[in-house]
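Retro notes, item 3 of 5
We never archived the inputs for the pyridoxal-5'-phosphate complex last cycle. Fixing that now. Sequence and ligand:
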Amino acid sequence: MTPADDLAHQATAAPEHTDAFWMPFTANRQFKKTPRLLASAEGMYYRSTDGREILDGTGGLWCCNAGHARPRIVKAIQEQAATLDFAPTFQMGHPLPFVLAERLKAIAPDGLDHVFFTNSGSESVDTALKIALAYHRARGEGQRTRLIGREKGYHGVGFGGISVGGMVNNRKFFGAMLPGVDHLRHTLDIARNGFNRGLPKHGIELAEDLERLVQLHDASTIAAVIVEPISGSAGVVLPPEGYLKRLREICDKHGILLIFDEVITGFGRVGKACFGVTPDLITTAKGLTNGAVPMGAVFASGKIHDAFMHGPEGAIELFHGYTYSGHPLACAAALATLDTYQEEGLFEKAIELGGYWEDAIHALKGLPNVIDIRNYGLIGAVELAAREGAPGSRGYDAFNRAFHDQNLMVRCTGDVLALSPPLILQKEHIDRIFDRLAATIRATA
Ligand SMILES: Cc1ncc(COP(=O)(O)O)c(C=O)c1O
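Structure as it came back at the time:
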């Protein structure tokens, strides 16, 4: 076997040893007894190492909005690797991040004209939080150090992200985290909004929680509020109608920056970005490169960017960055991804297919243990009743059965089954996803 054959074999066969790889966010011992292993992917499907075709209901991990192994993206990465494998962007540069930033600016909400590159959602979040703090300092309001997140929020796993995040298991093991952080209440309210279609009707008043925190801490101490417009990791929590707009108004009133974490909602997942509300900073990753090369990006308004552009010209304006900020392979992948999204009209897909998707997911109402169904754009969630004394076990069983018995990949968080398929899907894929999910839910009763 040549080394290339050997690598190809190793990439597609079940590995002989599984001990050394400490898997992220995984029950390692349980997984390694019965692994779920993916060997290749194309379009809407993965192929498992045991040769089964698995329908991808989750775009990998909310990443592959254009589906898998898209030729234009593959070619761009291959060619870029052969042309310029790496170049630093600290006091040096190469053309692609400049080109990419301009392309991104053109599709960003108006006014978000500047782009800072990172390698992940977590890095984007920590970057945005740092920019917010340094922005206030640059304007002579350095006492604005407090960051406000939200219960159930997920903002990645950096210390900044877990501090403003609101998922207890992601926080409780890791000490005191950042000081001076507070949280808004979350917006999940099954009692009032259960089985609602689209954005919840009840809950706009939860935005007033920000006024409560302003009363408590004083606006002059608060730098920024960060929320996910739709949170995925906590089980698809949607913003009540009018909620994000109200948050924007309260932030404006008090000079507080508003950060939207769009790591999962960006790049076409919900059609139009940001629900018609323009934040000061947006964090992105995942769909930016279709998941093909790690990359994140923070979009900043001109107001924020320009506040840094003072002082001697030879001074570094922001002491922050990553060795791989604007990595050539990631830039090439992102540019090819944007071309693919544009050529195939994928940003319109969530709007075109949203109604069919909504009807299909809500048809699961009435199946055993289904206690709520939530949807928006091409996002869906089915919440199952927890087993007594074993929260999360029903959700995990359903997820595992879907993979092994129904050849369907979904995501489970607790007892919520979350769906975020590639945007290239057709109605027949939607039918297939929900037929298989219904069979799974029945089998998990
Ligand atoms: C809203 C949000 N922010 C941040 C992240 C972290 O992204 P990453 O895993 O790329 O660090 C995620 C990941 O799912 C996310 O959903």
